[in-house]
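Issue 218. Parser rejects a valid record. Input:
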Amino acid sequence: MASPVQSFDPAIPASDAPCPFCAIAATYSPFPPSSPPPADSPSLSPTRLSPSAFVVLSTPTALAFLDILPLSRGHLLLCPRAHRSKLTDVTAAEAAELGAHLRVLSRALVRATGVADWNVVQNNGAAAAQVVDHVHYHLIPRPEIRASGRFRESFTMFGRGVREELDDEDAVELAARLREELARVLDEESGKGRL
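Output the parser choked on:
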């Protein structure tokens, strides 16, 4: 049996649920996306906290972090903090916030990775390739591989294809860069009324 996950918030009881996203949500406290903590903050340290995660966004309602088995560098997951199995279980308020975060995370992802093309994928249920039973969106940068002479390779969708474990050193730097770019995007858009 999984050991209980103690929440950052003492008002939230420890959870015995094996959901890895709930464990991340319980461990990493919310912070304002427009002014994230510094990269060396203990509240973001994947080496000091368990479970280990490379968090990019953490609000009271939503969480975004790097996928541990990315399809490409910068592969992000965005999910509600509360456990919801499928998109139809998400509240209207959660859906609105997730949608707003998808747009600004996409802009930050393009800037941080330098990759102008990306997929947003969301699967509902095992038959639809949902592996973790907690609704989440994949934001997957799609670098142009043919330009580098790799004509026979192609990306595949929905988790098929070559996936390697996330490189922890690169992930620390990339997550920090994504948080910085997200803060810039939010700052730019706050003056344009786009938020």
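Fixed in the parser; the record now loads. The chain has one domain: 20-154+162-190.
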